[in-house]
Amino acid sequence: MIQKTEKRQDGTIFLNLKGQLDHNQSGSLWEWMTYRLMDESLTDLVCDLQDISFIDTAGVALLLDLKKRCINQGIRLTLQNLPKTAQRILDYEQKPPVTNGQTQQYTQPGWISRLGFWNTNKLNGIYHLINFLGKFVSASLILLKHPRQIRLNDFLYHLQQVGSEAAFLVCGLNALTGMVVVFQGETVANTFGAPIYVADMVARSVTSQMSPVLTAILIAGRSGTSFAAKIGTMKVRQELDVLAVMNFNIISFLVLPRVMAICVATPLLTMLADASGILGGLMTSTAFLDLSPIAFLNKVQATLNPENIYTGLIKACVFGLIIGLTGSYHGLRTQNTADSVGIHTTASVVSSIFIIILVDTAFAAIFNKFGW
Asked: Which of 21, 191, 305, 308 would suit a FRET pair with 278, their CA atoms being 20 to 30 Å apart?
């Protein structure tokens, strides 16, 4: 068994290998090194092979592949204390071939080539994202043309997972939010000698802003990560390969039911969150501000208009689409390692929340332009 000792310092990984680097150990070491090379901050890789007791052709092939990958990604590779047998093979591989009596010289890629390789790796993610969105749109259009192809059982299952099982959390969170708005607005309202305007603040802030955003963030952390983890685990277990061999459309089979369920559940949960937030504000106002429930509800009814409700529901639909697509995309981008599942699950919730806040800012500017 081969043992690895890793140290990091300022973009450099110092790797000490100990044991036998043969065909039995090369596979696991290759996966580990491939994962490490995905680190964008890596600039130098130093491998010390002094404690390697045995190396065969599989180990040498591993070193050759590692060297090629490092060259392609612009990483400086240093092999220290290389066994003599492996050194002779590497020296032979590095000799330029002779063609018609002339020696063809190979040179290390320059900074322009390394910059090109770096851009290729970066643009690769953009390519996969555009490809994923194109397949999703295509599958959606096919489903609109043939609605009977919908996987109704899967849709209802995910609707239950995303919607009804999260209702309690959504209600509790938004009820507390309504209470917080009352406490925060009490000082401002008392300045004008009109505590009744707390109801106005609760109604407007909860329905148009807080309920859709907080509900979306809760669903992103609960359901978006679940999508990414489940699809990623299926890919690690090679279940997606089996579905592809059986001629299943992965997007239609796995992604569409999840995205449809979350797009339906998010507006419903948002309406429930609106009611919970107003109820929380009502309870707090009655208990601490000596406002009667009837006066509070009358003020809420006078304040709210259809635009307040519609803007929140429109945001909720878009937020649900973002969460479903982001979670499914990161799940499909998972590599065949256990670590990759955790990485992409975390990336899915971080990306979802960032995009939600960004889109919410855009909605605020658009709705303000129309006076909503």
From this structure: 191
Burial 272-308 (b: 16+ CB within 10 A, else e): bbbbbbbbbbbbbbeeebebeeeebeebbeebbeeeb
Region 60-64: mean pLDDT is: 80
- 14: three-class secondary structure by DSSP: strand
Residue 233, domain member (yes or no): yes
- End-to-end Cα separation, the chain, in angstroms: 66
Query: Is 226 found in the same domain as 89?
Result: no
Tokens of 67: 């060297």
DSSP state of 193: T
- Separation of alpha carbons 210 and 230, rounded Å: 29
Q: Which amino acid is at 29?
A: L
Residue 184 included in any domain: yes
* CB-based contact 71:37 (threshold 8 Å): no
Which structure tokens are listed for 193?
């000698």
**Domain span including residue 355:** 150-369
3-class SS at 247? coil
The pLDDT assigned to 121 comes to 67
Name the pLDDT band for 109 (thresholds 50, 70, 90).
low
Highest mean pLDDT among 40-44, 63-67, 254-258: 254-258
Q: How many domains is the chain partitioned into structurally? A: 2
Domain boundary among 65, 83, 103: 103
